Give the backbone structure.
Amino acid sequence: MKKTELLALLLHNVALEHSAIVQYLYQVFLIRDPGIREEIEKIAREEMRHLKWFAQKVVQIGGEVEIKRVEEAIDLSRETLKGMIEADISAEELAIKTYTQQLETVRDDSVRRLLERVIGDEESHKGEFEELLRNAEEEKINRGSDSADQKTTSVLNELFREEYAIILKYLKAFFHSKNWEHRDLMLDLAVESMVHMGDLGEKIGELGGRPDFTPADLGDAEGLTLPDQIMENILYEQTSGEKYLREGEITEREDIKRLLSKIHHQERYHHTRLREFLERIHRFTVGDLRKRRD
Ligand SMILES: [Fe+2]
Ligand SMILES: [Fe+2]
Ligand SMILES: [Fe+2]
């Protein structure tokens, strides 16, 4: 197998894991039963680990990480709990089939071991979903969607879509950066943005709305130098922080006010963290130049 083929295969797996994450989180935001939510959320977190491992392999082999999705593998059409879990079993079966087939052609030992590990995980997920299905009811999810507060859910969805897009951006920077402090910062901000996205998604579900998993268009950081990338992130965090402040003032609901204000404060801190990092890399560059001149 050629290197380009192996890279394509790994990127496909990144996209497949990403698709499962989208499907599972969508359900987590809509399902009200705390036990079932927790179970599916736990599995989604394991898919995140799979995504990370496949993406790290791409970097190790010398490829470029793209976090795409396999749209036809995402099923957000199910209206009942039972239907949702059936779709999850299908997703796990597709993953098992895909990775098992790959084992027939992949010769790279380290990738083979990774595939074997992930297949084991997916098999156990399938078993967990099958057990959930045995106890699941035909009950319809989100009966309140007609009465959903359209204006509030659409504002929350706009914020949700931006968090989703920035997570993808920060993760990409995390996979590719050669500066350890930058990597650490990117992962940190990605994880906090995941919490924001999760809190927003949960609120959207609570209001009877449906979380919109279309990432907002935040532009591409392709070709930007590290300081320019950070500048772009700083601007984003600033605009995003202001947006949370503004929307928090408009809404009447106390719980949403509280959530948006909390995120607003955290975005301001993200802004600060990025600015401090930018100052440090500038100082480093200037110090370097001075040394060279001496
Ligand atoms: Fe997975
Ligand atoms: Fe899985
Ligand atoms: Fe942020």
